[in-house]
């Protein structure tokens, strides 16, 4: 058991952040944390309220979704997480929520346009909304296919998952990811905030323009580029 | 008195959840809990603030609305609860609130369209809005007739109260129900959340499509079907 | 000093409720309480934050706005309160806030239509928005004239201040009143809630109908009529 | 070090107010405080969460943006603050946030119209939105040029920075200022509130008129004019 302690603790801490940042109602969200060396990830058990969660409740699963350790049933979204970890060696945490504004954009089947520098501080592209999948895929292995919806929309838009750490699954809700659980949950909170601002922007001015290219690159580079000067550590 | 202890305690606890989930302002909501064997239910007294409520304040009423036990006047909505319990043997708790977004939909006289999986996790249909009743009915036994408005809209839409545990009463506000007070209040919070997301979805895209049928059934079945795999207990 | 103790205490308690119910930012609201026998009222001092307020800071003023007791300058809205007390012998408390949704309706110069039973539980009419006053009146005794704007809009709409305890002053913000400070503040919170629901209702359906007459009277009468059956006390 | 104690403490206290007033998510905002005699200002370090902030973390910088004291990297917006202090001898504190409603107006590239007295209590003009700068300026010294965008929009609109203590930078977010950190942060909270009310006003009535001139001047003068009668101190 001891070999999974670290990912279980980090997944536990990550899940506890979801209600703290007002990203979930009841049990509607889950955080997982992967150990790529061992080929496993720890994930929230299905349907357990955050306030009753214990580190030992985290379920350890391999990248095919097979349970390796744990007494509870893992999140029903586990196969989606598994697919993404299998394809993304450098992603250590994935978050799924039904946060209100991000979910409204997903239900509207619209990408979130890059309207301002708050958005550009995090990514240079519109946040893509993957279309709902075909009936065949839904009736097959639905949560597994949801992973491929996410992979495919990024491929189609020619956007790397390293640059864009958040996607809307159309008619459903958002997924975000990152190097750590803290970063992946941070991305969920950022997405919800950007989604709300973009909602208000469109209501105020239905022809609000996308942010101009020079500003997109300026803001993204000052935070993430080779010569980044935001924060206290040199980015590389 | 001892024979009503359980329903009074459960009704008390249920009423205390309403302010916790931000579903009520002042005294604008009530929870009841029924004992079908004894043919009675316990309900909040009328106009008493939640923070001053005591278990012993709960009023016990029969399914014709006659007071069986209690020193206070029961909620003015008592006859609505009574009608529903009389018709639904398997419903043990009913909740009425004026929660903001659900009430706005009720005031708009619009069903809440099923726009996403958050909705489909709970029901496969649009959430129906019963039309305001005729003047004759209003001037007669109004709260009693409100119960029939709820029964009739479900009948007309051919939806079972087992599948759909929430209804909007047009120009008025929502009612929800469930097997327990906890579940019935949960449904009120879910409805408010779905109502807000649907509001935002329509504002973003006035032609947002209903969720496709395959997704409606997939999400509902994974939570409520014979082979449900959401949560920790086998559903039957 | 002892003869004003009661109104000062009640005004103090009423002012403390404004931040509790999220009706004010900084110092943007005031509550007064009148003693009609002595012809005076106690009101919040101008520009003092609620958390620094003390009972002894309340300023006692007569119905012509003359300071009777107190070391601080009274609210700049004092002449408006004075005019209303002078005309309404049965009103003991007045509240002014800039609560968000009610103020947005006032800025839109629109009455708040009676869309549902939440509204009808409190009044049978649309909540009137008084038009902005003439330049002459503004440049004269502005706050004094604001009192007449409120009196005049009720007169013009043929609505009694006993039935309608809330008014929007166009381009400005709401005023509410009642028999006690608790009731007058309650009315401010009710107004803000009704204003938000009405906002959402109009956004959802620009042709949402007014509540039908039979429902308006049913809901109002069950709470305020001769045979009222809401709450624990017989209304007269 | 002792000679900067006062501005570091005031800047520290000012930064702590940002989360208190819900003006920031994560680290998205900064407060600075200047000492014009010494030609320096203290500012929040870049990317440090408010709850981990310490007085000693404040970075002291001169009006050309050169670090004078401090172990951390100053806010990336430091050059914007520097430009403004260099031009405004009477401004002692500057605040930058990405507060939700103000940022939505900035993203919409719209001035916030003066719709009501809440707005007029603080300024007599629409709150200006500076246009996004040219590509040359962005690719040059971007944050430095942002300061000039603010100076230029005020010049173009013929508005003094003494009368208007808040500006939207188009596609970006708001800046506010004042005599003290408390006042500058107060202005950020006021701006967010005015921005929300103006948003709701436009949604309710797309042809809501600007506040009439007589009311603009009445409200502004009663708070800020030679004969001001709002608050407890004589304004001069």
Task: Set down the secondary structure blueprint.
The structure is a homotetramer of 236-residue chains.
Chain A: H1 5-20, E1 29-35, E2 40-43, E3 59-62, E4 67-69, H2 78-87, E5 93-97, H3 100-107, H4 117-120, E6 129-130, H5 135-139, H6 142-156, E7 166-169, E8 173-178, H7 181-204, H8 213-224
Parallel strand pairs in A: 6-7
Antiparallel strand pairs in A: 1-2, 1-5, 2-3, 3-4, 5-8, 7-8
Helix pairs in contact in A: 2-6, 3-7
Which features would summarize this protein structure in a list?
zinc (chains A, B, C, D), L-ribulose-5-phosphate 4-epimerase (chains A, B, C, D), alpha+beta, homotetramer, 236 residues, isomerase (chains A, B, C, D), Aldolase_II/adducin_N_sf (chains A, B, C, D), 8 strands, globular, 8 helices, 15% strand, L-fuculose-1-phosphate Aldolase, eight-stranded mixed sheet
Question: Could you characterize what this model shows?
Answer:
The structure is a homotetramer of 236-residue chains. Chain A has helices spanning 5-20, 78-87, 100-107, 117-120, 135-139, 142-156, 181-204, 213-224; strands at residues 29-35, 40-43, 59-62, 67-69, 93-97, 129-130, 166-169, 173-178. An 8-stranded mixed beta sheet of chain A has the order 4-3-2-1-5-8-7-6, with helices on both faces. Helices cover 40% and strands 15% of the residues of chain A. The N and C termini of chain A lie far apart (35 Å). Chain A is globular. Chain A is α+β, with helices and mostly antiparallel strands. The first copy, chain A, has a single domain, classed as Class II aldolase/adducin N-terminal domain (L-fuculose-1-phosphate Aldolase, 3-Layer(aba) Sandwich), CATH 3.40.225.10. The first copy, chain A, is built from 8 helices and 8 strands, in the order H-E-E-E-E-H-E-H-H-E-H-H-E-E-H-H. Chains in contact: A-B, A-D, B-C, C-D. At the A-B interface, helix 3, helix 5 and helix 7 of A face helix 7 and helix 8 of B. Chains A, B, C, D: Its cofactor is Zn(2+). Chains A, B, C, D: It catalyses: L-ribulose 5-phosphate = D-xylulose 5-phosphate. Chains A, B, C, D: Residues 9-199 form the Class II aldolase/adducin N-terminal domain. Chains A, B, C, D: This is L-ribulose-5-phosphate 4-epimerase.
């Amino acid at each position: 058991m001891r070999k999974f302690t670290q990912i279980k603790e980090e997944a536990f801490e990550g899940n506890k952040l979801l209600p703290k940042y007002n990203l979930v109602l009841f049990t509607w969200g889950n955080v997982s944390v992967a150990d790529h060396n061992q080929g496993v990830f720890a994930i929230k058990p299905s349907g357990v309220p955050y306030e009753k969660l214990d580190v030992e409740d985290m379920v350890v699963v391999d990248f095919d979704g097979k349970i390796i350790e744990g007494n509870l049933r893992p999140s029903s979204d586990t196969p989606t997480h598994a697919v993404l970890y299998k394809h993304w060696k450098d992603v250590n945490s994935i978050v799924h929520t039904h946060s209100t504004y991000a979910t409204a954009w997903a239900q509207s089947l619209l990408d979130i346009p890059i309207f301002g520098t708050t958005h550009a501080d995090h990514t240079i592209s519109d946040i893509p909304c993957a279309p709902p999948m075909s009936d065949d895929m839904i009736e097959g292995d639905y949560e597994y296919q949801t992973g491929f919806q996410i992979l495919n929309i990024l491929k189609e838009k020619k956007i790397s998952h390293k640059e864009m750490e958040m996607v809307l699954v159309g008619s459903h809700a958002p997924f975000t990811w990152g190097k750590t659980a803290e970063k992946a949950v941070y991305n969920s909170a950022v997405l919800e905030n950007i989604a709300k601002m973009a909602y208000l922007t469109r209501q105020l001015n239905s022809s609000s323009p996308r942010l101009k290219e020079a500003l997109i690159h300026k803001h993204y580079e000052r935070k993430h580029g080779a010569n980044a000067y935001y924060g206290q550590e040199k980015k590389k």
